[in-house]
Amino acid sequence: MKYAFFVGCLIPARELSYEVSVRKVLPALGIELVDMKDANCCAPFSIQSVDHASWMALAARNLCIAEEMGLDVLTLCNDCYESLLMVNTLLKNNKALKNKVNEILADVGKEFKGKSDVKHLIDVLYDDVGMKTIKNAITEPFTELKVGTQPGCHLTKPKRIHFEVLRGFRALDELIAATGAETIPYERKEMCCGGPLRDINDELARQVAREKLISLKNAEVQGIVTVCPFCYLQLDTGQLEVKRHFNEEYNLPVLHFIELLKMAMGMKLEDWEVKSHRIPLGDIVKGRIQEE
Amino acid sequence: MKLSELDLGLMSEVANTPRGKGILLCIQCGRCTSSCPVARITKEHNPRRLMEMIILGFRSEVIPHQLPWYCLSCFTCLDRCPQGGDVGEVMFAIRNLAVKEGNVPAGVLAQAKSLMETGRVINPIRSALDKRESLGLGEIALGGLDEVQSILKKTKLDKVISPKETVKRK
Amino acid sequence: MEEETRIGVFICHCGINIGGVVNVREVVKYAKTLPNVVYAEDNIYTCSEAGLTSIKEAIKEHNLNKVVVASCTPRTHEPLFRSACREAGLNHYLFEMANIREQCSWVHSHELTRATQKAKDIVRMAAARATLLQPQEEPELDIKDVALVIGAGVAGMTAALTLADQGFEVYLVEKEAQVGGNLLRLDKLYPTMQDTSEILEPMVKAVKANKNIELMTSTTISDVKGYVGNFKVTIAKKDEKSELEVGTIIVACGAMNYMPPEGLYQYRVFDRVITQLEMDELLREGKLEKPERVVMIQCVGARKGEIRAVDLAGFPKSDTARLLAKILRAKKEEGWPYCSKICCMNAIKNAISIKARYPETDIIILYGDVRVYKEYEDFYSQAREHEVKFIKHIEEVTPEISKSLEGKLEVSAFDALSGREMKIPCDWVVLSTPLIPHREEVLLARMLKIPISPDGFLMEAHLKLRPVDTQMDGIFLAGAASGPKDVPESIISAKAAAARAGILMANKKMRTEALTSVVDEDLCIGCGLCEEICPYGAHRVEESKSKTIEALCRGCGVCAAECPRRAITMRHFTDDQVLAQIKGALVPEMEEV
Amino acid sequence: MEENKVLIIGGGVAGIQASLDLASRGFKVYLVEKSPSIGGRMAQLDKTFPTLDCSMCILAPKMIDCSHHPNVQLLTYSEVKEVKGSAGNFTVKILRKPRFVDESKCTGCAICAQHCPVEVPNEFDANLGMRKAIYMPFPQSVPRAMTVDKEKCLECGLCAKMCEAKAVDLKQQPQEVELNVGAIVVATGFDIFDPTEIPSYGYGRYKNVVTALELERLLCASGPTGGHLIRPSDGKIPRKIAFIQCVGSRDRRFGNTYCSSICCKYSVKDAVLIKEHEPNSQVSIFYIDLRAFGRGFQEFVNRAKSEYGIRFIRSSPGEIMEDPATRNLTIWYEDTIAGTVENLVFDLVVLCPALIPRTDAKELAKVLGIKTDEYGFFRASDIVINPVDTTVLGIFACGYCLGPKTGDIPDSIMQGSATAARAAEILRGR
Predict the structure, then answer these.
(1) Confidence class of residue B164 from pLDDT cuts 50, 70 and 90?
(2) Does D199 touch chain A (CB under 8 A)?
(3) pLDDT reported for residue C502
């Protein structure tokens, strides 16, 4: 199976371990990733808030590239996913809007046709790779690891652009179960991480993150698993900020799901990857680190 | 509040902005606010009340303020609104209006500028680029920058983010 | 020589309802020992087909001439057992029912032996009365198949047409010179937004064209005599009076729009403060020039306060007057206590009409609750899509209306949902006021002997189950006479009233209960007390002797109780029957001694 | 002569009223009811607003009248399968499902049920109570006859052995009856919106979140708890109870954009009943617009506030959270007047779901050839002047199957009578 690989802005800039792990794990599961060479920013929340037309056009341009490649788009980030999926859905269902956008794209010789689909890493693992293949690929499952998941908002919301409510939640839980780890439900699981408020109102962003962390702490999890680089940033780096401002200890290590899967498949984390986590991973990665 | 300060047209202005139609559906039931993570933290942010103030036309109390920017666009309200009232969507409409009047947070402005210059809202620092190289992850320089820039020229993003008469943000 | 009394007693287990508490078999055994009881049995369910058959068989087999069933409440089951007796050739007034469920097993479920004891007492009392029961014939009345419909609004006309189309003759009486009632003043109808004329004109044509309908305008009702099937109604056109003989009467006298007193919300002080109905008229006549803004205020004189003394002045002796005297002492803000229920839709209707004419006009509706029930919710959404603005104002902070410097009206209100006070300049202030009962209605009610509900509307026989019947046989209610209704609701109630009246007239005859008062003319001194106190007007003193009009008598027994000469007895509830029952209750329990 | 015959589909209060009026008017009436007994929704209610009459007590006499009226023939446990012809002359095929009990022999003594080994949830009690595989839905059922639920029956034959009347016949076959009638009245009523469609309210996941109909059964003296209000999770008496309005109604997401138009009223009624059951309980009602329209209701609401101290909160809550330990429920809501987000803990939460078309309404519409409206209720030929005529002449409708335009019981009764008038006009008019 082949995908147009949309890596986005944040991951290559700040979360290389996420990108590296994906590039390692997916081929191992029979997924071929083809880089979207000239792709631009997905046009996330911030840009949508500034100007509607710019958002539409930029997202559409990315979709056109995928169409030219004749492939569906694979995203690693909930924000990219939401932006591309929303625009793809809107343009596919609204001729007038499509024409407007294509008018803008005409200058750069592109045209949105609506031939590609947009998928999140989790969709691809759950639907295309399939639980069976994944279960078979697990060689060193985790034992007695209790984690709380942060599926993030745009993996499942808004309902209207996802065929099934909370499907992403279920998918993620099953995938984690496959790695041998156990997902613990917690009250604020559906709640946003607060990420979008970073740089707008850090104070508020921290308070939202804090509510989530408290709820996770109460559920007595050993770590947090994310599927979105913004959630990751907010709960990992953010956790330190919360600690500093409210001086409360949480010590909840945060992992990208793909890292969890990678380790369960018997691949080791490299030292730099482990170090890239601001909250020490501790016992979770015991015996799963590459010796130099 | 006097009529002069009440902006009769605000509701239809929002309703006729892309993503703003939902304002006409609102029945002020309050499901959005009680579902909103931010509203639970600060009384300042109240999506339902924001809708009400737009309906009534309290322009000067909405557009130049932080309020519309407090929305996380987590879309919880979208899924819970019985009217399909799209509160979370209307927020984008309001922010679009706010930006046109110069109400745009520094962080967002920076991202928009970066987008115009590099085609990305976030760019890797030197060390990250070196790391990529050492890992053989390959280039991420944006080939299509010129395309991006001509698109943004056409959508006049530069004008949007630097309007002539800039309203002071309270 | 009187034949011997042979009573059969049937005692019901009602599954476990009675049998689970009362020792039914023991009660049967006991019943057999009672005087005149020649047969007794128990049934799992006496009301089941099986139970009823065994009653019929026992009547024949043991040639019973009195039957007692001890089971549940007569209210639901007496008719059933009575008809069983009839079918077995026994006059059904020779049946007596003892309630050992509601009055025994259900209330004594924890004291079994005493419950059984009480069941025996109840059965004994019933048997005692049964001994004295007499066969009775129910008077049969002829029903004249001509109807009178009072009021030619949409409800009255619909009722008249519905009856006429079934082939009945109808007198349709309207006090105004023109038919159509409130619809004459309305602009459009919600939610269809069709002109009222679209409904009204064909209806009026049909009424005038129908040979079964005799329409009489500018005519009022001045007196009603008689009873179901045989009403004698005096009508007056100017000074000339005439009499109609009808079998049934449908009251469709409608309701009127409440006019705020001068000064309330500056009504009649500023000429651009008007009622919703007046706005309807402006729109209807196309006299509304383009306003910049219109503000509508809901629930003016509704959902608050109490009924005002002036509304009662006309009829100090009326039932309402007495009912309301109490309330009035606690009089709060002027107005009517109920929700008139059509005002929200009416306001929205006019708002949409104005928007349709002048899209730029800003319309604000101040409400307490938007009561757009049923599908009218969609009508409300429609208004919002037309950009009509709805403000929930805090009613405690009543909106104030003043003239601004620019000579505009200025409404100051407090928006509960944004927590802000606003001064809203506007060209028109429109007050939504409730539908209230006509004053004539109450006088009419007195003539028809229909009770009036606390809110002043005519009262139905049962709020839930008999919404168009009245407590007077042969008199029915249609339209807003029994409370605020919009056009579709009025039409439904009118058709319903027509159906109920039609049943009586189609059958041409009806039987009434034999349980009526009987006057002993030798004892009667014609004092007229009975005539005065009878709530149904069933007594009339002629040649210094009181007469009972059986068709009107409900058998309530007030007359019998009040008669100073004990000249009045109640058929089927004679003193000695009742006394026998009481004596029965007091007999010392033999078995226990 | 079929001009004199009318078919009524649905034995709820509307259908009963239509039957009685037509029968007394001299028509031969066939009353077809899908379930084993007539009575419909009204039979399930505890008390009726605002007079607080016992619902069953005022309905039962009408049910009995139906069963004994010489002009009414009851066809319970039956369904209309085919309709041909036109006004004045319809031919109708009716399927009489086998009761496996001979109606004419059964005395309804229910001894068979006492011995039946199979226990299943009783639909009539909103599945809160249990019944046997051979059962009568409720004690006042009309006809007073048992029915065997063949899906659950073990065919042990114990019931047949126990029956003195020899009424049980497990071999009974379905029957098809063909009728000729001049007019048809549809009165099939409504179904109830499934609140699991709104996950954030947790119905189905949280034991102590119930629907209003379930509450009616919990309050009813003849209900599964004998009229004791106890909460499902632990049988404790709830002290703090909340009602939530507009669950699935006034809701575009599910296409029920209308207002069900009875929920505000029955909620206030139930709240008052609860206070009378348990005077020291606290009842809150969450509403968007309090729709106590029409005579008597505003006054009723005022009494509920002043006399019974019932709390009215203008807010539609966003979500309900359950405490796994106590099974208590936290309601998150915005006090829309104060503009603040609040949360309150309750022992029991009552959802007031939308009233929606019968699941088989579309099917029946096809059989009858009548049209349905945008919500799936039966369409009136003209909502203003012909409110009880369907789109086919000679076929009329009354009660909630016409949609919320009906509203409550008196409306259903008026419509029932109105259909009688219309049938008479069509069949007797000169």
Answers:
(1) low
(2) yes
(3) 96
Domains: count for chain A: 2
**Average pLDDT estimate for A15-23:** 95
Q: Are residues A178 and A155 in the same domain?
A: yes
Q: What are the chain A neighbours of B104 within 8 Å (beta carbons)?
A: 50
CATH code for the domain of A38: 1.20.1050.140
Chain B environment of A57 (Cβ under 8 Å): 151, 154-155
- Within the 262-301 window of chain D, which residues sit less than 8 Å (CB to CB) from chain C? 289-299
Of D88, D64, D89, D78, nearest in space to D30 by CA: D78
For D331, nearest residue in chain B (alpha carbons): B34
Check if the beta carbon of residue D66 is closer than 8 Å to that of residue D82.
Answer: no
> Could you state, in order of their start, the residue ranges of all structural domains in chain B?
3-100, 106-161
Render pLDDT for D39-87 as a digit per residue (tens, 0 to 9). 999 999 998 988 787 888 789 889 988 988 999 999 999 999 999 999 9
Alpha-carbon span D242 to D260, nearest angstrom: 19
State whether residue B138 sits within 8 Å of chain A by CB. yes
A260-282: average pLDDT: 95
The pLDDT tens digits of the residues spanning C6-32 come to 999 999 998 777 988 999 999 999 999
CB contacts < 8 A, C to D, total: 207
- D418:C499 CB<8 A: yes
D246–B29 CB contact, under 8 Å: yes
The amino acid that residue D253 corresponds to is R
The pLDDT of residue A165: 67
Q: In this structure, what are the phi and psi dihedrals at residue B20, rounded to the nearest 5 degrees?
A: -105, -5
CATH of domain B3-100: 1.10.1060.10
Tens digits of residue pLDDT in C301-311: 888 754 443 34
DSSP state of D379: P
Q: B22: which chain C residues are within 8 Å (Cβ-Cβ)?
A: none
C176: three-class secondary structure by DSSP: coil
In chain D, whose CA is at the least distance from the CA of C417? D337
Q: Which residue has the higher pLDDT, C116 or D109?
A: C116
- Residue contact D296–C455, C-beta within 8 A: yes
Examine the fold and report which residue of A121, A144, A169 is the final residue of a domain before the chain moves on: A121
Across D412-427, average pLDDT: 94
pLDDT digits (tens, 9 = 90+) for C140-196: 999 999 999 999 999 999 999 999 999 999 999 999 999 999 999 999 999 999 999
Q: What is the CA radius of gyration of chain B?
A: 19
Contact of D336 with chain B, judged by CB distance below 8 Å, is answered with: yes
Phi and psi, residue C374, nearest 5°: 55, -150
CB contact under 8 A, D199 and A165: yes
* Residue C304: per-residue pLDDT: 72
**How many Å lie between the alpha carbon of C87 and the closest alpha carbon of chain D?**
13
Helix (H, G, I), strand (E, B) or coil at D339: coil
Does a structural domain hold residue A98?
Answer: yes
Chain D residue numbers touching C77 (CB-CB < 8 A):
64
Burial label, D166 (beta-carbon count in 10 A; 0-12, 13-18, 19+): exposed
Q: Please, which chains are in contact with C (at least 3 CB pairs closer than 8 A)?
A: B, D
| Residues with Cβ within 8 Å of residue C210, at least 6 apart in sequence | C160, C161, C164, C165
Chain B residues closer than 8 Å to A159 by CB: 78-79
Model pTM? Answer: 0.90
Is A69 within 8 Å of A34 (Cβ atoms)?
Answer: yes
pLDDT bucket at C121, cuts 50 / 70 / 90:
very high
Domain with A94 in it:
2-121
A107 CB neighbours in chain B (<8 A) are: 150-151, 154
Q: How confident is the model at residue C593 (pLDDT cuts 50, 70, 90)?
A: very low
Average pLDDT value for residue range C77-102: 92
Contact (CB<8Å) B99/A35: no
Of the candidates D363, D367, D389, the one whose C-alpha atom is nearest the C-alpha of residue D83 is D367
